[in-house]
Amino acid sequence: MEEIPIVVLNYNGLHLLKSYLDSVLNTEYPNEVVVVDNGSKDGSVEYLKSKGVKTISLDKNYGPSYARNVAIRTYKTKFMAFLDNDVEVPKEWLNPLVDVIKGEEKIAATQSVYTEWTWGDQPSEIPWFSTAAALTRRDVLERVGGFDEHYFFYWEDTELSWRLYRAGYKVLMVPKSRVYHEAHGTFKKLPSKFTSYLTMRNQLILLLTYYNKKQIVSNFIPLYMIRFLQSFKAPNRGAKLKAVLTLGKEIGYVMKKRSEIRKLTVNTDDRFLSYLGRDPFGFVELRSVAEGIRYKMSAKATV
Fold this sequence. Notes:
Blueprint: E1 4-10, H1 14-25, E2 31-38, H2 44-50, E3 54-58, H3 64-74, E4 79-83, E5 87-88, H4 94-101, E6 107-113, E7 124-125, E8 133-137, H5 138-143, H6 156-166, E9 170-178, E10 180-181, H7 192-210, H8 213-230, H9 237-245, H10 251-264, H11 271-274, H12 289-301
Parallel strand pairs: 1-2, 1-4, 2-3, 6-9
Antiparallel strand pairs: 4-8, 5-10, 6-8, 7-9
Helix pairs in contact: 7-8, 7-9, 7-10
């Protein structure tokens, strides 16, 4: 039975490692825990060495996408699990993920439940997996290009999931695997203006990359206008406006990425979009602005 690398990302998260890492080290399924540290200055690396945990130390914060890709390139295993450093897991958390992903070659990732889930106990297709707690086919991730380092942070696992769907794979939630996620433990360490900028920019370049020409006209343009108006809401108005107003600088990247996506695409039905709107994922407006407006109006009417 091949050991599965469990990759934990860390950036100045010493207090989180002290709270949650022991639970990861107690994982029942055969594994090797490896922490990829993004240039921490808070004693994290020294702590990990004192516990004998394998550590890949980067000289600065290159972002989660880069750090995960380092792990993907380092190992040659078939599977690789990912956890955030603010996740506590029961010892058996990995077993159900393994059982499901091994059941079908076209399953590229399986995810643990860490939020409210009301869709039963059976595995269910979802739009994207979160690297907060997921098992992936490492070889498939490497084959399709890994995480997009242009994103740095935020929406990068969504982009990879959409790419996997285009390449003919799928992503499943596995409700029998449940973990506790403090949520945004590392996100809080980054400057809020920077995260606001990335959140807005990355969503827009994601849509420009994957929408077809018809969708760009019918949905991206009105959604862009909505995001522009939303940028005037606090906090970090300037950062969000910068993301919207400087989008033109991303066109070169977008065109290159669209060309790369076309080369690996075997499935153009965009099942990814069909799963949006379903709790806990939301973002129905990415599928249809009109549908998103109706959804919000309906939600307000029931309050």
